[in-house]
């Protein structure tokens, strides 16, 4: 008899619990539908906004990597805002706070673990804005000398005169000395020409100018200015 009574009490408690769950679900159903609608609306808004931003950026910048990064950040921000609003509708504000705290802790840990990757990523963004070189430029930095073939957000691909493909972290290009041989259309080439102390300087100047007679007028003027400096 006791066993039957216990089973009956347990069944009643179980039924009451299920009924409470069903009633709670029915009460939360409007909020649940509204939360789902907010999520769908945030996804649609994110798509429209990202398409608009991508078209605007395409008009002003040819950097696909930067455009793709900005679009992804905007999409993530809009969808995250929609998720926060949806959780607030479901009265899960404490859950939102806990999630944000957990994301902050995880982000801090990942920041320390992948600080080199983050540094290269930020250096790539800085390079896109500063534009120290373009694809096809001949550059020299640290142990690399060659032409730039591709610029990514985290690394830059270059090729040496020997045909070797080199992948350079962007942080090294920002932190170290960089020489861009294509950065200026006009460059001066210094040629060391020794003249003995006993030689006639005017004759040496005349011979040097005659040697460049077949070159353009601008270069002849420059050479004349440099050669006249010998007499000073």
Summary tags:
SH3 type barrels, Helix Hairpins, 3 domains, 232 residues, alpha+beta, 7 helices, disordered C terminus, single chain, elongated
Give your account of this protein's structure:
The chain is an alpha+beta fold and 232 residues long. The protein folds into three domains: 102 residues, Helix Hairpins (Orthogonal Bundle), CATH 1.10.287.1260; 49 residues, SH3 type barrels (Roll), CATH 2.30.30.60; 31 residues. 65% of the residues lie in helices and 11% in strands. It is built from seven helices and five strands. It has a five-stranded antiparallel beta sheet. Strand 1 and strand 2 form a beta hairpin. Helix 1 runs antiparallel to helix 2. The longest helix is centred in the first third of the chain and has 59 residues. The radius of gyration is 35 Å and the shape is elongated.
């Amino acid at each position: 008899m006791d066993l039957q009574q216990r089973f009956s009490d347990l069944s009643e408690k179980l039924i009451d619990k299920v009924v409470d769950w069903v009633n709670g679900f029915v009460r939360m159903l409007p909020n649940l539908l509204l939360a789902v609608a907010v999520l769908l609306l945030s996804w649609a808004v994110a798509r429209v906004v990202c398409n608009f931003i991508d078209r605007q950026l395409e008009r002003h910048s040819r950097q696909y990597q930067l455009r793709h990064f900005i679009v992804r950040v905007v999409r993530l921000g809009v969808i995250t805002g929609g998720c926060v609003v949806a959780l607030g509708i479901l009265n899960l504000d404490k859950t939102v706070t806990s999630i944000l705290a957990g994301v902050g802790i995880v982000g801090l840990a990942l920041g320390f673990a992948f600080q080199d990757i983050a540094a290269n990523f930020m250096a790539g963004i800085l390079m896109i804005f500063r534009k120290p070189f373009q694809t096809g430029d001949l550059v020299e930095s640290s142990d690399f000398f060659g032409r730039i073939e591709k610029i990514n957000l985290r690394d830059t691909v270059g090729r040496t005169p020997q045909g070797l493909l080199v992948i350079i972290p962007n942080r090294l290009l920002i932190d170290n000395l960089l020489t861009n041989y294509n950065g200026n259309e006009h460059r001066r080439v210094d040629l060391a020409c020794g003249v003995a102390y006993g030689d006639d300087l005017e004759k040496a100047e005349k011979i040097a100018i005659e040697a460049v007679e077949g070159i353009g007028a601008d270069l002849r003027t420059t050479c004349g200015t440099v050669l006249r400096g010998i007499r000073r």
